Amino acid sequence: MKAAGIVVEYNPFHNGHLHHARSAKESSGADILIAVMSGQFLQRGEPAFADKWKRTEMALASGVDLVIELPYVYATAQASDFARGAITLLDAIGCESFCFGSEQGNIDPFLKSRQLLNSKNLLYQQEIHDAIQSGISYPKALNKAYQTVTDGEEGVADLSKPNNILGYHYIEAADRISSSMRPLTIQRIGANYHEPITEGMSIASATGIRNAFFEGGSIKELAKYLPAPSLQALQSFAGEYGHFGSWETFYPMLRYTILKDRPANLRRFAEVTEGIENLIYEAARKEQDFESFLALVKSKRFTRTRIQRMLTHIYTGFTWEQLKSFNQPSYLRLLGMTKAGRHYLHAQKKNITLPMISRAADLTDDLGKLDIHASSLYMLGMGAGNLKKEFTTPPIYFG
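^ tRNA(Met) cytidine acetate ligase, sequence as received from the core. Prediction below:
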């Protein structure tokens, strides 16, 4: 059985994701589609709109055969580390190929860019360093360095686009671990990464869907952008919790954590740097809602995403010391499977190179304990009375 891998967040699973899943399977010629999916906290540094189990349900009902959790350390990391964790897991579970959506829509420019940056790595790293020293944000420094190194080159990827950037990092990660997986990309269609919902379109960005809901829309009103199983899962989640995950919902607990720890302790947490802990503390003292708080912290040097990742680590208590202690994923955490996915695991069990974990009780190393801890804090932020869902929820089976 041939497997293709995809890296996802499904926050929530919408029509664009359905197109990606179907196209990935078709373009790869695979029998099985395996998704590595972020858990309760996401790469942009925010709590998931719906928990990982509901998002797993959406995926399995819409063409994905296996869902594996991307551990917290990688799910909340900058693009290169996010990609490294995800690609390592797809390689370990035996995928023959991996497929990502991109604005580019053609794999050749990515391969050329990777070859070029490999050959000019010293210059590229120096340009990044110089750009950061000039006071611009890390993403802007990467793009500036890339533009310098590729100046005059034809046929390279446009790394000013968010999905292209992530796609390049997937290829870079596969190259660095000497993976035999074949990289594939499909053209992203419909709304762009952060675009608001546009009337007349059936494909909207996950950001647009979330924003429309938080601005007063109902899940039912957003039905045309969601496959039917996603709509049902979100309605079920809303019925259980009465709301969806967001920093606005989590802010009272985040604010308490910030004020309790004080600046001297805040700087211990991963990604908190350059004195921003003082600004975070003062903003938390002054502001009673998250967006007002964030407006006081944002600057040209620190993007919203980077600040939110700092806040995620403050909320979960994830420190610089912990961040530096993890080198690579140590297990495959199974969140759900279809009948075909179960057959694949049975057929490939001798070829899978990391332990397959289906119970939280078996997550006994530091990486696994961190996932359990983060999940418990997500449930607490959602107002759940029972924080043991991590232990009481078996892998979802979609027969």
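The chain has two domains: 3-103+186-242+328-398, 247-324.
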